[in-house]
Amino acid sequence: MAAIIATAEVSTSGLRVTYRTAGDRGVLIEYGQQFPVDLGLNFFVHAAARHLDQHPVRGILEVVPGLRSLLVHYDPSTIGQAGVVAAMDECHEDIPEPDSLVLPSRRLRLPIAFDDSTSREAVNRYRISSRPEAPNVLDGNNIDYIVACNGLPDRESFYATVLETEWWNAFTGFYPGLPSLLPLDPRSEVFAPKYNPARSWTPEGAVALGGPCLVIHPIESAGSYQIFGRTLPISALTRRPRAHRIDPILIYPCDRISFSRVSEAELVELRRQVFEGRYDYDIEPGEYAVAEHCSAVRDEQVAAEAERRRAARQAAHGLVKIP
């Protein structure tokens, strides 16, 4: 099978689409360019997935959204690669302009304790056992490195950047329940290189930054993103009273996350309530009109400030050592 099956262009938007072979039962569809990261592509991905859910195609079994891709799992005895491409081409033409898109999207509010002791423990374990001279762990934390990478004046500026926007769950992946979050406000974009090599241990609930994405670790695991804080558990592998839902995963694709700052002592108490089944997560059902993001991006003052911060980040990135 050829690696690239076909390419196309969506007539309504000019969006470039590339179809790739993904084994003998899958087609990987890539939208647009890899860089710069464009939330508009992610909105289109989720709109395509939703369209297929509402207008099923015989033989297409499942679709899995990525940052700017859609993995289509199909039954080859019912539909072939060419049929998948034709069905998806038709799907793409039916998706409305971005300003008209409305996606299912809940609001979740989570507490966060910055620079907590458990996060520092993960950094120190790595510094002692893996790579003591790594530039991102020299001070026993990753936060100062994140601040330097983004050209920010101090830690408080970084914390404010995390707190001042809603974070869009672009996709869930790498392992079950791990959300990859991007800021809906372009002024809150941040970036950090990943560990090299990766950590062998990351605490559950750790909030970390890698590339342009924030993640929340649903379980203890290895990890390579720069840790800067901790929040509540976002997965429930054993059912508990008043937990998220029947589904063990708290955060869905297209959910919007906002963080509120708490002390480490306050977070410890809230986590205790979760484990004892006494905590109610702050979840608000709803939808998200993509026009809100489009309006913010087009605002001249917002765009100017986002570009100023982007330029400062790019200048700073050239001055820091890459792990």
UniProtKB/TrEMBL annotation:
User: What residues does the Carboxyltransferase domain cover?
Assistant: 17-251
What InterPro entries would the database entry show?
A: CT_C_D (IPR003833), Cyclophilin-like_dom_sf (IPR029000), PxpB (IPR010016)
What Pfam families is this protein classified in? CT_C_D
User: Keywords on this record?
Assistant: ATP-binding, Hydrolase, Nucleotide-binding
Which PANTHER family does the entry mention? Answer: 5-OXOPROLINASE SUBUNIT B
| Protein name, per record | Carboxyltransferase domain-containing protein
Which source organism?
Saccharopolyspora oryzae
Q: What is the lineage of its organism?
A: Bacteria, Bacillati, Actinomycetota, Actinomycetes, Pseudonocardiales
